[in-house]
Amino acid sequence: MPKNKNKNKRKHKRAAQQGTAPPTPNTYTGFHPTPSWSPDRIDPSKISPRDFFTRYIATRTPCILTSHLPDPTWFATAQWTLPYLTKRAGSAIVKVEKQTDSGTFGSGQERVEMPFGEFIRRLENGEKKLYMTTQYDVSVPEDVVDEDARRDMGRVLEYCQPPLTHLLDSFPARPSLLSTLAPQQVNLWMGAAPPPPRRGGGKKISDQFKGTSSGLHHDFQDNLYILLRGRKRFTIFSPGDAKYLYLNGNVSRIHPNGLIQYEEAGNLRDDGAYLRDVAAWKVGVAERELEKARETGGDVAAAERAVDEAVEEALKYGLDDTSDGEGVDDDFHMSAGEDGDDEDEDEDEGFTFGDPSKAFDSDPEVEAEPDTIVLPNGKRKQKSSPTHS
Predict the structure, then answer these.
(1) Which residue of 39, 250, 262, 379 lies most exposed, with the fewest beta carbons within 10 A?
(2) Helix crossing, 300-315 with 275-296: angle to 10°?
(3) Backbone torsions φ then ψ of 275, nearest 5 degrees
(4) Before 163, cis peptide (omega within 30)?
């Protein structure tokens, strides 16, 4: 199977080089900038979550917030000095990237483990070749043996990792401005670079004064990027211009909301949810409804039909039915033969939320589907929603 995939990739690459590749279906309908466009600058304390959703999120329009979050539980702006971070989270073990000989970060080399406090100390001492980014591959400690505790801790680590696990009281889990959305992941990116000299006299800024940078990339999740120190410049592209960019993979379709779907990623919904995960979720909902009907004397026959329909749909996506004929039980699972070979290993899975059409519903009884509603930024940055940096 991998051999065939590589063959197909080479075929697509040759076709693209020769200008004979079939056009990728691009049904993107969101915002597209004009040459004279500049992003709106928004005071986050003077716009409601509904208006923010309608004007920017739903239309996929990037914008700039002119101040940090107005939430009463947002303390990072004032608190997060280096001494404070060292005191609160200095013992946390983090993985740090080292700058390569060519002056870049994130080139796939092994990261270095160290206490967060040591990382801060080395930055304070003027070291410029260390950079802390997303702390992926963080596992629940082996000494946590209670199953419920391991499950709960695992869920926390999907949302954020050290050192942020030591700082959870410094920021809201869901900022009020984004109350219509679900947080997927929060990250802390941190490094040091010399300040650039002032421009003037037509002189070119030396390479030694350039800061760190991230390569062009995109996410299923969009970003709330909060800059606490320093400066940051973003270069963003519209999904409508994907055909002009060099993408890492064979694009099968671009959804109306801008989500870029690759052939290698399998079947996706336009919110980034895998259809087989959605199907498995629907089976679980149908099972619970059946159990409820049996307990309360409800319409058991209708509930059983709903289970059968959910199972039938799930089977289309390679899920096994291991039920005993009385409805699907907890053993309903992905086929053992599906080892994730069709998925992009860099794609995130995290906290989930419901149907975007119900973004303003407040019914606590509504169960959430395994998807993520995201913020627009056009940049499609990897692994962060929201991001604190």
Answers:
(1) 39
(2) 160
(3) -60, -30
(4) yes
DSSP label of 39: -
H helix runs in the chain, sequence order? 2-18, 49-52, 76-79, 82-89, 116-124, 147-159, 275-296, 300-315
Q: Per-residue pLDDT tens for 336-378? A: 233 333 333 333 333 333 333 333 333 333 333 333 323 333 3
CA dihedral sign, ordered 36, 39, 41, 46: positive
Residue type, 162: P
Q: Which two tokens stand for residue 376?
A: 């627009």
SS (H, E, C) 77-143: HHHCCHHHHHHHHCCCEEEEEECCCCCCCCCCCCCEEEEHHHHHHHHHCCCCCEEECCCCCCCCCCC
For 279-309, give the DSSP string. Answer: HHHHHHHHHHHHHHHHHHT--HHHHHHHHHH
Q: Is 353 exposed, middle or buried (0-12, 13-18, 19+ CB in 10 A)?
A: buried
**Rounded CA gap, 85 and 7, in Å?**
49
Distance, CA of 313 to CA of 316 (rounded, Å): 5
- Bin 383: left if φ > 0, else alpha if -120 < ψ < 50, else beta: left
Q: Which amino acid is at 36?
A: S
User: Whats the size of the chain, residue-wise?
Assistant: 389
pLDDT digits (tens, 9 = 90+) for 124-183: 998 888 999 989 888 888 888 888 889 888 888 989 999 999 999 999 999 999 988 888
Q: How many angstroms separate the Cα of 106 from the Cα of each of 96, 98, 133, 227, 325? A: 10, 8, 9, 20, 51
Interacting residues of 151 by C-beta distance below 8 A, sequence separation 6+: none
- The whole-angstrom distance between residue 176's C-alpha and the CA centroid of its chain comes to 19
Q: Is 354 helix (H, G, I), strand (E, B) or coil?
A: coil
Residues 327, 290 contacting (CB under 8 angstroms): yes
Match 């505790």 to its residue by tokens: 149
Structure tokens at 149: 């505790």
Whether residue 175 contacts residue 212, with contact meaning beta carbons closer than 8 Å, is answered with no
Q: State the Cα torsion 261-264-269-273 to the nearest 10°.
A: -120
Q: Look up tokens 């670079």; give the residue.
A: 193
